Each structure stands twice: as structure tokens, then as C-alpha cells.
Amino acid sequence: MTFKGSYIEITNRCNLDCRDCYNSSGRNKITIELDIDVLIKYIEDLIVIYNTKIITISGGEPLLHSKFNELLDRLTEISHHHPQVVFSFITNGTLYNSKFYDLLENHSQFMVQISLDGPNEEICASMRGAGTFTKVMDNVIKRKFFHKPVYKMIINKTNAPYVEEYFHFVYEQLNGIPCYGFANPQGNAVKNWTEMALSPLEKAKILAIVQKKYKEYNIKEVTLPAPTVHCDLTDTDGIKDFCIKSDGSVQPCQNLYDNKFCIGNIYNLNWELLKTNIDKLSLYLSTRLEKDYGCKKCLLNNNCGKGCPAFSFMRNEGLLTSDEDCDFRRLATIMMIKTDKKLDK
Ligand code: SF4
Ligand code: SF4
What we know:
Layout: E1 2-9, H1 36-50, E2 54-58, H2 68-81, E3 86-91, H3 98-106, E4 110-115, H4 121-128, H5 132-140, E5 150-155, H6 163-173, E6 177-182, H7 193-196, H8 200-216, E7 239-244, E8 249-251, E9 264-265, H9 271-285, H10 309-316, H11 326-344
Parallel strand pairs: 1-2, 1-7, 2-3, 3-4, 4-5, 5-6
Antiparallel strand pairs: 7-8, 8-9
Bound molecules: iron/sulfur cluster (2 copies).
One iron/sulfur cluster binds at residues 228, 231-233, 253, 255-256, 308-310.
């Protein structure tokens, strides 16, 4: 088994309370943060035993971890021994930490993804709260990052009309890489879902716009916000990725977030047991591939991995149910082929 990366939530606290936050971090009243020694041991095991090359540090807001500077020092030390490893941070960009920004400007193994849900104060405020946009700009404008930062917009009904404007703002004014995802009905978004949800056709049209922009500007660093076709977890011999929660729980992925999907804990990690648990889950999820979600009559049948088990759980409360993205997958496939043909002409 190979572990290609790990997504680690080092703290459950956040200074914002975004309308689309998948784990409602801003509402946590009791702070839970990962112990630095335990975290470092886990990261070193991944790198040394499993040759993992990407470690993603997230939260909550990771800069709020009470020993964040110590963590940066320890990761810098690791980077000297393992030059193939990249540490990627996911932050809301509103907090300043000089050591952090020094590393992002000068160290080739430190990268950042900043969450920003619109190209201006008004649109960003509708998702992330007033003043957020200005604080991010204060931290990033005029900074010379070693790697271009990725700015990620989570798209929902309110900010959807600004996808193209966002692309140009990030690419031209921030010298960053624009990246997109669609909001999901989880965390804070559950309560607001009727006003946030986009139809499959609306999502497919947005996808075509993003695809066109990425091609025009030759952007290859990020993936399209395309519907999930295949899930790595349905491969019984695949390459895996884990999500670690701030209490040390190991989750199969960031979207299988409920405690019932926990497959271990890094405070008492037994790698063999973890591998057994992930094997069991993969074997179970692989039975999705035999299910008929309308597949026999579907144009994608021969190439479809039957979608995302986590969305199936969110939308239909079962890992083997439909993920409800079949219309999006079909429309997206048609639109992407059409966009490709237009661009090839
Ligand atoms: S898109 Fe849906 S119906 Fe079509 S093959 Fe995939 S899972 Fe089946
Ligand atoms: S369950 Fe869904 S979100 Fe999780 S790894 Fe599979 S496709 Fe990705």
C-alpha cells in the first residue's frame, strides 16, 4: 500500500465562520489541537516508511495552532533531510505570521492555498464575512512567493456569476493560480443549502468556463472542478490518502468525516491495523462498481467508476447509494468534449 499524501487538520479552531465551511470550525468552542511530537512522528513515518511526498496542513485555521512556529521549525528541519517532500498549507489568509510568510517566500518546499470565495470584498463577504477580503489582500499583495499561491473559490449560487472575473483577478492581479470547487451539503452549508445549491446544468456550464480559461492560460497545476468519476477508495490495491482530524482520528478522506468512518488514531497508531481497516473499507466500497444507478442505459457506463461514496452518504445516507451526480457527470462530459473541440479548431 502506498500513501500519496495526508491532509492534516492541526487545530479545530477558526477565526472565521464561512457559510460553506465543511467542518464548521468557526463554531467550535473547545480548542482541540494536535500534539506537535505526535504529529511529527506521524509525518516522519509517512515520509520514511511510505515515501509520501505531499503533506497538507489545514484546520480550522492552521495559523491558530498554539505551537505553530514550533511546527514550522520542525517541518523545516524535516525538509532538509527530505528534499523531495512538499508541505502545503491551507489557510484563510487573514492572519499574519512572519515565519510562515518568510518560508512561503524563500523555501522551495513550502506552498500555500488560500481560501478566497470572490474577486472583491462584497462577494467574498457574502461567504466568508465582512473584512475578510481586505485582510487577505493586506497579507498577499506585493509579496513575492517562491511558488505562486493557489487561491481557491468554493462556488455556490451567490458567487457563481463571478467565476471568470475571479480567474482574471487571481491570475493577473494576485499573480496566483485560480482554483475552484463546488460547495457541498455538509458542515455549515447544510442549513443554507437551498439557497446555495447549483443545478447539474449550472455546474457543467461553470466547468466549461473554467476549462476554457485553464487551456487559454496553459494552467496545469490544479484540477478542474469536475464531478468525481472514480474514487481511489474503491480500488482494493490503490494509492491512498488520509485525513487526520485535530483529535488524531484517521479518516479515509476529508469528506468521510463522520466519526463512524474513523479507521485509527495517530496518538496510538498501528500501521498494520490501519492498513487492514482501509483494505476492509476498500473491499466494501469496491462493490459500488457492481451497482446499477441507471448505468446500463448511461452513455458513461464503460468509463465510470460510479462516483463518490462520501457524496452518496451525504445525499442518501449510504456508502453504496447513488451519489446523485450522474446528471452532472453526463452534462460535464458533453460540455468538456464540446469545449475541447471548440478550442482545437
Ligand atoms: S454517471 Fe451514473 S448512471 Fe452513468 S455510469 Fe456513472 S454512476 Fe452509472
Ligand atoms: S469518498 Fe469521495 S471525496 Fe472521499 S476519496 Fe472517494 S471520491 Fe474523494
